[in-house]
Amino acid sequence: MSFDYFYGQQSELFTFYRVPKVLFTNERFWNISADAKMLYGILLDRMSLSAKNGWLDEQGRVYIIYTVREVQESLCCAEHKAVKLFRELEQANLIERKRRGLGRPSLIYVKNFSS
Q: What digits encode the pLDDT tens for the residues 25-41?
């Protein structure tokens, strides 16, 4: 049996975001919306890219840069919803944002949900 090749954008067909099951099964996370859990999965995915690029702070913690605009594009939502999702993850202590000011995007620390 012979399989066909992937062409162009088809290579993205089988790239997946992984959302930790514990976010759906552990009662500690029941108050978080499914959209916020999905955003957390997207942010986790970005962590590997940041680590590969050496985006570490002075304490060796990996950070990502993911703007409200990028959330809007990823989840097809309005700005208000994207801001709400970030806030929801912060209140659940799953992320921490460090604002840098001067129009520069915040640094986002994605926290380890299992600790």
A: 999 999 999 999 999 99
Closest CA to 35 of 69, 83, 67: 83
The Cα-based distances of 46 to 3, 22, 102 in angstroms read 31, 19, 24
96: Cβ–Cβ under 8 A, 6 or more apart, which residues? Answer: 90, 108, 109, 111
For the full predicted model, state whether its pTM sits above 0.90.
no
Ramachandran assignment for 37, one of left (phi > 0), alpha (psi -120 to 50 degrees), beta (any other): alpha
Residue 24, both tokens: 């759906």
Q: How far apart are CA 32 and CA 26, in angstroms?
A: 11
Closest CA relative to residue 61, chosen from 115, 11, 109? 109
Q: Which amino acid is at 115?
A: S
Q: pLDDT tens digits, residue range 48-96?
A: 899 999 999 999 999 999 999 999 999 999 999 999 999 999 999 999 9
